[in-house]
Amino acid sequence: MVSNNLITLGIESSCDETGIGIYTSEGGLISHKLFSQVSLHAEYGGVVPELASRDHIQRAIPLIKEALNESGIKLNELTGIAYTAGPGLSGALLVGGSIAQSLAWGLSIPALGVHHMEGHLLAPLLEVERPEFPFVALLVSGGHTLLVDVPRIGEYKILGESLDDAVGEGFDKTAKILGLGYPGGPALANLAKQGDKNRFTFPRPMTDRPGLDFSFSGLKTYARNTFIDFPEEKANIAKAFEVAATETLTIKCNRALKQTGYKTLVVAGGVSANLSLRESLNEMTTKNNASVFYPALDFCTDNGAMIALAGHYRFLAGQSNQNYEITIKPRWSLEELLPVD
């Protein structure tokens, strides 16, 4: 450890958000900035990788300057730079990695590529009320649906994952079927507020068999077929999909807590902002005398604060990339990570 007060800059650029965070040993998270590319990709109905990469190039440096100015930290006071090395879009990851390693080289400080999903998993640790280890983590986003056994930081065992579509992808695709535009997940959740949960009953996929894996592709197909038969009932279909998806996730989380014997559940990723999911999980954990923790809504979606935090823990453990190679891993399992001692 070079300094008693480590000051870590985090850079997130895995997909369509440019996120910057600054985390210190003494002050915790002291600044975070985010630029979302939603409006840029909306006309295409989804993320265009090349456009995402170009926009990260334009946004990252100005956001870093804003974060430094807001925090009162000078560039030469940084002690380490963390960036998202994967999983994610290759071009977008290369932008963040190039900026991080170039800055680190110029400042003669270490840089480190961190795992995007570890950032999400640790995001609840940014809150005042923090979960204690060990716990079960449910990571739910547009690209991932994972149940993870977390004994400590950096030690992760995947208990279950989606065999096809991630739950966030299921939300987005169902929203597209209903003609709700992009981004689809929040739009579907908003429309579902107007729906009658008793009008349609959708299946709860893979809950009638043992195990902790997921499947959401068939649920999306069920929604499409229902929409073909009842095109005037968009709100009720949105509600039925949301209820089925959240109940499926809740059933699997309940199983995971029983399987591990843990009494703490952490839920993170973009879908963790869904209020119906939170209500369902809150009810389940209360009934089972367990606790559930979420990130603040600002830190559910991709952000630089979680990358700064994940990098900070690894810098504290002495991990870094001293040769300034720009390393990315578009596909990267959590189970490949080293524990933080």
Automatic annotation (TrEMBL):
It is found in: Cytoplasm. One of its GO terms (cellular component) is cytoplasm. Its main location: cytoplasm. Keywords: Acyltransferase, Cytoplasm, Iron, Metal-binding, Transferase, tRNA processing. Substrate binds at residues 139-143, 172, 185, 274. It catalyses: L-threonylcarbamoyladenylate + adenosine(37) in tRNA = N(6)-L-threonylcarbamoyladenosine(37) in tRNA + AMP + H(+). It comes from the Bacteria. GO terms for biological process: tRNA threonylcarbamoyladenosine modification. InterPro entries: ATPase_NBD (IPR043129), Gcp-like_dom (IPR000905), KAE1/TsaD (IPR017861), TsaD (IPR022450). GO terms for molecular function: iron ion binding; tRNA N(6)-L-threonylcarbamoyladenine synthase activity. Pfam families: TsaD. Binds 1 Fe(2+) ion per subunit. Its cofactor is Fe(2+). Fe cation binds at residues 116, 120, 302. Required for the formation of a threonylcarbamoyl group on adenosine at position 37 (t(6)A37) in tRNAs that read codons beginning with adenine. Is involved in the transfer of the threonylcarbamoyl moiety of threonylcarbamoyl-AMP (TC-AMP) to the N6 group of A37, together with TsaE and TsaB. TsaD likely plays a direct catalytic role in this reaction. Belongs to the KAE1 / TsaD family. This is tRNA N6-adenosine threonylcarbamoyltransferase. It comes from Candidatus Pseudothioglobus singularis PS1.
